[in-house]
Amino acid sequence: MKFIEMTGHALMSMIEPDEVSPERLQQVGLTDTCLVRVNEQGDVEVRRHDRWDLIGGLLGGFAQRAERASGRTWAKTG
To answer: How many domains does the chain have?
Structure first.
């Protein structure tokens, strides 16, 4: 599976109105400095001390937005 990692700040900058709300992300503990990752299906996970937690999702057309917001490309795991 491929992911793209970014900060919470970068994620918040790319969220569109019909996706998970910034308020909802903050309620589940997202901060500007959190490490988050998005998979190819649009699932958003935040890095906790010992695990990744699913916190929301993105809708279609997010791949290029994720690359622009993060300054990174998609990377395959394991």
So the answer is: 1
